[in-house]
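Question (not urgent): is this output format expected?
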Amino acid sequence: MTVVGGKGSPGATTTALALAAGAGQPAYMMEADSFGGDLSYRCRWSGLPLAESPTVLTAATAIRHGTADDVLARYSHQFGEQLRVVPGHAAAEQAFTTDWGPLADGLVASRHPVFVDVGRVHSASPTLPLVASAEVIVAVLRADVSSVLRTLDQLERLVPELAGRRQSVPTLVPVLVAGSRHAATLVREVRTLMSGSRVAAAVREVGWIAYDEAGVNALYSGRRPGHGRFSSSAQSLVSQLVPPMEAVQRSDRARPRSKGSAHA
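Got this back:
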């Protein structure tokens, strides 16, 4: 699963981390924002920041010579009982000198869900292979009209590019990050807007995660997910997304794969 953010949208990184933490099973969260990441600075495991390495670039190099499970286990950081994270690279320039295709191809073999934060992407983004290979693409929205319209415009240009790379329509789940008040109404309004857009065929559902600052702070401290609105809504959303991902992966693994195809 990849998580993308539009201009003016709230944290794709936080959303990806919350979904991975709420998976209820061993899972990985990978930061692959082409503009560079800050996960290693924000996460505090046992009160300490994560080590500077390994990073996603380490994994992208190692995947050429190892299995996804071995690489993810070896080049990730423990961040909870069932969660391991792979921080992003520090400088944007590094994204353009990395071949992301092998990593996108390799993630299909992971036995556990992998949630990849790619931040803002466009048709020329170097990390686009990670988006094109995803079983589910989560697009993070802020609960205001301008954010939704800007992200919709971005998606209407991005989805055809992804469909061409995949040779199939991608599965898109817009997710609102907002307070719980009026959430159901906002979700219905976004669903209606998406149904009349050029990405309607790609949209499977519109989700919601309740923003709660205390919950976000707990998430980045590596504490066990609680029962607050933030963690509960993330757990509810991921419970709807992970089983379909696994079903598609099982079906896909049962048939011969064409060269260059991948799912994450």
